[in-house]
Design brief:
Structural class of chain A: mainly alpha
Bound molecules: adenosine-5'-triphosphate, magnesium ion
Helix content of chain B: 25-40%
Largest interface: A-B, 42 and 44 residues
Number of helices of chain B: 10
Strand content of chain A: under 5%
Order of helices and strands of chain B: HEEEHEEHEHHHEHEHEEHH
Shape of chain A: globular
Structural class of chain B: alpha/beta
Oligomer: heterodimer
Distance between the termini of chain A: 31 Å
CATH class of the largest domain in chain A: Mainly Alpha
CATH superfamily of chain B: P-loop containing nucleotide triphosphate hydrolases
Radius of gyration of chain A: 23 Å
CATH topology of chain B: Rossmann fold
Order of helices and strands of chain A: HHHHHHHEHHHHHHHEHHH
CATH architecture of the largest domain in chain A: Orthogonal Bundle
Radius of gyration of chain B: 19 Å
CATH architecture of chain B: 3-Layer(aba) Sandwich
Number of domains of chain B: 1
Distance between the termini of chain B: 14 Å
Chain lengths: 416, 273
């Protein structure tokens, strides 16, 4: 084994001759095909699905891909997207929260009652709504950790309880309108990034991708590990900038990129960092993958479940606040209907597994765009909600089937 | 007489000592009044038939199960092991029989699980370098440390589990059938490793069904039978003695006689085989 260290033209991680080390462009393509074949689908089904959806709806109604419709789509995506981000965190540990819709409705009711009816400052009302969500999550985790109550049941009970509380708070009137000239409603309806700011943010993100990538490559080279090719990093960053700048340009033909969507993307990036680059995120994946192994590694499993439940319910409350802003009202209908299902479907469609241990924050972003695209397309076609529900249900079923099949394939290819 | 010097009670002080440890699972008594001492710089082999309670004993010491009764003394202090974290922070590292790895995480993540460098900005490079070093010490044949554990063979997983235990610089290391799935070279490497950590002054508890491996490295052989102590042997004890103690075939007379003789002449005899 010392011989290995002395004869060190080969990097530490290239010692085994059996592994094909994919280099260059063709290697990258080959590695990609291998991964897809073994069921490690990543975001491929979403991208394919999105292309299909866009083609179909665009051919049925040319308004679908117009800048105006896409800007609206981003506004709508942000609210449920934030809820879906919470669902990602709870799915990663292998549990579920079925009450996110009601919790978001409850949060919007709290905003309406405290801010409009009682006259509290809007900031304080938002904090109270978020704390309420967090407390609900802590209750679920206490039921789960202390009493072993399956999250499926406790959150189903919570769905009804939170809905009841929402109706109680709203009282007989049933609906509270939020003032149109307030910053919160502005955020939900009007605030758009100045065009130059949007371009600049995308450029900054591209530079950030390149800098973190090349710094990682330098660290790996210094440590005697094979670094990723700088050219590849540059290509990735450049592709990102070109594609996203084009999208931004297209949106800027109409109003532009909503700040609310920017907030959502910021949360996604933050959550991705937390999941992939921190000890907490590693522990979340470990608990979702093998709870007993995580426990034996000294991870405080209960604390991890607690953080997952609390985070999910808090993000659900935040999503409720945003959708109140979007609708400029807190009503009995807020958070009911398909909100729950859309949030869960988005996470699963985006590639987060229902079986725990696999998932990424970006699946909320990708998934919600797919779900909202379907919703928007069906609305443009003027279909009744009965049909919309059936179609959305079908899409969710397909997403879960893809997840199950991919999982089976991963197991047989040793990538569980 | 060379045997006799090898069998001197180890110079190190007692790291771990168990007294009258019992563990019940409902109606099943998996462990009954088990006593065990491990000195620093000593390899204790724990042997016994299937279901004898070896893994249960290891899990009690790893904090996975809490004992029903009995005392555990570690480093001179009586301790209660309420969870795996207690054992780990005392310096007890364990390779479990069922390995306890996360299949969805890669090799580096598994080795560093719960011990990650840089809690708020994981230092993946440093962790990967150390992982390659640990695996190198074990002559591991692992093609890539960035593949999920699910893609590894049984023996590769076992090596990962052993590397994981070594990472934390423990005072006592417990290996539950560490060589069960290993190839020839890797088994030799693990046995070498056991001797190396012993020479560093660590206490080692090793469970194995392979008497050859046991004799090769153990300083003492502790037999469990049906959850009870059933004699203490030394590497030069005869095979019949060991086998009968493990299986209980000859009503334990042999081992009782053996023990009695050791009490009278602690540092000699026994080389009758
Ligand atoms: N979690 C548990 N619940 C109930 N009974 C258990 C549990 N774990 C172990 N036992 C019982 O305790 C006894 C001892 O089991 P243990 O796993 O310690 O055996 P072992 O000596 O390690 O055997 P092997 O050589 O097959 O690994 C067995 O009878 C087993 O059925
Ligand atoms: Mg066992």
């Amino acid at each position: 084994m010392t011989g290995n260290a002395e004869s060190r033209p080969t990097a530490l991680d290239r010692a085994d001759s059996r592994v094909r080390h994919d280099a260059g462009m063709s290697g990258a393509v080959r590695g990609f095909i291998d991964r897809i074949r073994s069921g490690d689908l990543g975001s491929l089904p979403v991208v394919v699905g999105l292309v299909v959806i866009c083609t179909v709806f665009q051919s049925l109604n040319p308004v679908f891909l117009s800048s105006r419709n896409l800007v609206d789509l981003l506004f709508d995506s942000s609210t449920v997207g934030v809820i879906s981000l919470g669902i990602v965190s709870i799915l990663i540990v292998g549990e579920i929260d079925l009450s996110v819709g009601s919790v978001s409705g409850l949060a919007s009711a709290i905003i309406g009652v405290l801010w409009v009816n009682t006259g509290w400052p809007v900031g304080l009302a938002i904090v109270v709504a978020l704390v309420a969500g967090c407390v609900i999550g802590l209750i679920y985790s206490a039921l789960f950790n202390r009493l072993g109550m399956p999250s499926f049941v406790s959150t189903l009970a919570g769905l009804l309880a939170a809905l009841g509380l929402q109706l109680y708070l709203l009282g007989a009137t049933g609906s509270i309108n939020l003032p149109y000239d307030s910053p919160l409603v502005d955020l939900g309806q009007n605030w758009i990034m100045p065009h130059l700011v949007a371009y600049a943010l995308v450029l900054l993100a591209g530079i950030g991708i390149f800098i973190t990538g090349s710094r990682r490559a330098a660290q790996r080279r210094a440590a005697g590990l094979t670094p990723p090719a700088i050219a590849g990093i540059l290509a990735r960053a450049a592709a990102f900038v070109v594609v996203v700048e084009f999208v931004v340009w297209y949106l800027n033909q109409d109003r532009g990129v909503p700040w609310m969507f920017g907030l959502f993307v910021g949360l996604v990036v933050g959550m991705d960092y937390a999941l992939t680059r921190t000890k907490w995120g590693r522990s979340m994946l470990a608990v979702g993958g093998n709870r007993e192994a995580a426990r034996r590694a000294g991870i405080n499993v209960r604390r991890i479940y607690q953080s997952a439940f609390a985070l999910c319910a808090t993000l659900a409350a935040l999503g409720g606040v945003l959708s109140a802003a979007r609708l400029a009202s807190a009503s009995q209908q807020a958070g009911t209907g398909d909100v729950n299902l859309n949030a869960i479907a988005a996470a699963v469609i985006g590639g987060t597994s229902l079986f725990g241990g696999r998932g990424s924050a970006y699946s909320a972003l990708l998934g919600i765009v797919v779900i909202q695209a379907i919703a928007s397309g069906l609305t443009l076609l003027d279909l009744s909600s009965s049909l919309r529900y059936m179609i959305t249900g079908g899409v969710l079923a397909i997403a879960v089937i893809v997840d199950s099949l991919a999982r089976r394939s991963r197991v047989s290819h040793g990538r569980a | 007489m060379t045997d006799a010097t090898e069998r001197m009670p180890p110079a190190g002080e007692i790291v771990l000592s168990l007294r009258k440890v019992c563990k019940q699972f409902g109606a099943v008594s998996a462990l009954t009044d088990v006593d065990l001492d491990v000195h620093a710089g000593e390899v204790v082999a724990l042997v016994g038939d299937n279901g004898a309670g070896k893994s249960t004993l290891v899990k009690v010491l790893a904090g996975v199960h809490t004992p029903t009764s009995g005392t555990v003394t570690f480093g001179g202090r009586q301790v209660t092991l309420n969870g795996p974290n207690d054992a780990l922070s005392l310096g007890i590292a364990t390779v479990f029989q069922d390995l306890a790895l996360c299949e969805n995480l890669d090799v580096v993540a598994n080795i560093y699980l719960g011990e990650e460098l840089g809690p708020f900005a994981l230092d993946e490079v440093a962790m990967e370098v150390r992982t390659w070093q640990l695996l190198g010490e074990l002559s591991a044949r692992i093609p890539s440390v960035r593949e999920p554990i699910a893609s590894l063979s049984g023996g590769q997983r076992q090596t990962v589990a052993i590397a994981r235990a070594l990472l934390r610089d423990p005072k006592l290391i417990m290996l539950d059938e560490p060589t069960a799935a290993l190839g020839v070279a890797q088994t030799a490497e693990v046995l070498n490793l056991i001797e190396r950590v012993r020479d560093k002054g660590l206490g080692v508890i090793m469970i194995s069904h392979n008497m050859e491996d046991v004799r090769a490295v153990a300083d003492r052989i502790v037999v469990l039978r049906l959850g009870r102590n059933n004699g203490i042997f030394y590497p030069d004890s005869s095979n019949e003695e060991l086998v009968s103690a493990i299986t209980g075939a000859s009503d334990n007379a042999v081992s009782r006689r053996h023990e009695r003789r050791h009490v009278q002449r602690p540092n000699s005899g026994g080389g009758t085989s």
